[in-house]
Amino acid sequence: MTKYNGLHITTKKILVLSGLLAGLVLGGCATTTQSGASSTTDNVPTGQTNADGTAPLPRTAPQIRQVSDADLRAAVRDDVPLRYVVQPGDTLWNIAQHFMIEPWFWPEIWQDNPDVANPHRIYPGDVLILTHVKARPRIKLLPRIRESEVHKPIPTIPANALEALLNAPRLTTEEELDNAPYIVAFKDERLIASKRMVAFVRALQKDSPARFDIVHPDQALEDPDTGDQVGFASIPAGKLCIDSRDNDLGTAHITASTRAVRPGDRLLPARTRLEYGQFRLRKPEQVTGSIIAAYESEISVIGQYDIAIINRGRRDGLQRGHLLQIHTEGATVEDPLKGDTVQLPSQQIGVLMLFDLQERTGIGLVLEAERAVHELDRVTSSTP
Questions:
Q1: CB atoms < 10 A from the CB of 161, how many?
Q2: Comparing C-alpha atoms, which of 272, 365, 280, 353 is closest to residue 53?
Q3: pLDDT band for position 65 (50/70/90)?
Q4: Rg of the chain over CA atoms, in angstroms?
Q5: Which DSSP helix (H) or strand (E) runs through 98?
Q6: Where are the domains of the chain?
Q7: Residue 200: other Cβ atoms inside 10 A
Q8: Is residue 11 over pLDDT 60?
Q9: In the prediction, which pLDDT does 178 show?
């Protein structure tokens, strides 16, 4: 497991993504469409796009957990206006916060309207109504006629948060790193390269996409609960576009870089705005884990729109768009009357949205943080 250590940039125990990583925009490759990226949803017709260029979402509603009427009513704000008009700049997350004390219950109150052409898309100007059906709160989208789609549907998360997702570390297994294409050399025998420079790539497959994220393999990730190695977190270095191929060899140009690109850097199918622009925010079934690593930073805290890695993944039933509460361990204090020590209960301090998963690991975006989040803070689908 030490063979990647010569390339690694040590994963910090704590992270802050202190700003947007500049320059990571998709470029080049105008003659080739993106392939190899995983679909954001199931049962989506291939090869189809909406009028606004976004990928179609499935007509079937996601499976919703059974939440009691009382718990759902308690999740809705008492003083919320019953009618809300969607504004430019809104996101699904801030609309959920507008209606709810606990916005992760949004899917439980959202009601598909058969009179609306695509009930999973919400646009500026749409009217949302809070009502009750058999004592259970519901949000309905009022149908309206659009002569033309002037606006794109509102995103799930803000634009700056989307940039953080696109530029986040990549979770991989040792096998994936071994089988990934990699940079073998640069034009003119350069030792390092950056944006616009030519690179030569090896280990391309016939079905390899044209666009790749360039990553530095990093330290192995360890599960603090078991001590097992559960994967690798690879640090993004830039983006690359394949110009020509000759069997498993390719000539490419670097379209963006955030740090020096070196021979041996691995290539993973590029994340795209289309792929990461929409999520179905929902709460998973019962699961509890820990934050085990975060993106490198010199500041020892995690805040809103920062990236954190957890020790739970697909085998635990987690999916993209799942929301987890972040809890920090309660302080140990001295009882002023008895003189002994008391362990205070844990406190919820934030919300983590998962956007990439391996079998045993997941990586998420901190949507909310009331205070600093640290490594080994717990993540859970419910209050412990």
A1: 22
A2: 272
A3: low
A4: 23
A5: helix 92-99
A6: 69-141, 161-276
A7: 14
A8: no
A9: 93
